[in-house]
Amino acid sequence: MAKLARDRNAIVCFKSTGGQEWQLWALLEAEGVAARQVPPAQVKAFAQSRGTRAKADRIDAELIARFFAFRPEAGRSLPTEKIRILRALTSKRAQLVEMRKRLLAQIRAHQKLGNAAMFEDVDSELKHRIDSLIKELKDRITRAIASDHQLSETAIVLRSIRGIGLIVSTMLIAEMPEIRTITGEEAAALTGLAPVAHDSGTLRGKRAIAGGRRALRHVIFQAALVAAH
């Protein structure tokens, strides 16, 4: 693939697939081949606008190519290695936080059933271990940001905003590496927080938010709640 792309001076495009595309992306970059990740939702909308309903690998490949030719600015370049490390650390931390949430829900359920004492030792040890791992990842995130001057500067600016702390600022840096070069309106659109109008003639419809980078939308909403109080 790399040889074919180089011979044709082509750009390799692909949809995000829940992280499975990262190895391909890194290998193409290492071979000096330009590669771009395109948003699946936008490719799907593009297919619908063309009346394409059939789904097959060859059809998908053609749609991705046509979409990128139509909207080249929608393609994302491979983030730097430090950004990829930050993304992996924040993703693993989020996974552990979710595990702790489920564990606490189970502990409350045991208490309601009156059998909390039966599992107290196990639950206590498990919670302590998860808390310890979350703290360890938080420390690694802090060190990763502190080791890079540009990332550290960006984090300081972000944390000066009410409601934004270590985790939210890290998520913004990891999931929106272009944050230093875009406007507030563009950032809102990328996170799916820009209200979309639904107007027709004299009718002024209800505004709604949709799409964007889901992981970011959640943490920014939480930050807004903190800032509001």
From TrEMBL:
Residues 4-110 form the Transposase IS110-like N-terminal domain. It comes from the Bacteria. Pfam families: DEDD_Tnp_IS110, Transposase_20. One of its GO terms (biological process) is DNA transposition. Signal peptide: none annotated. GO terms for molecular function: DNA binding; transposase activity. InterPro entries: Transp_IS110-like_N, Transpos_IS110, Transposase_20. This is Transposase. It comes from Paracoccus haeundaensis.
